Amino acid sequence: MNFDAAREIMVDSQIRPNDVTDAPIVSAFLRTPREVFVPNSRKSVAYSELEIATSPERSLWIPRDTAKLVKLAAIKSSDIVLVIGAGAGYEAALISHLSETVIALEETTALVDAMAARFAALGLDRAVAVDGKIAAGLPDQAPFDAIYVCGMVEYVPDAWTDQLAEGGRLVAVVMDREGLGRGTVFTKSGDTVAARDAFDACPPKFAQFDFKQSFVF
Question: What is this structure's pTM?
Answer without folding.
Answer: 0.95
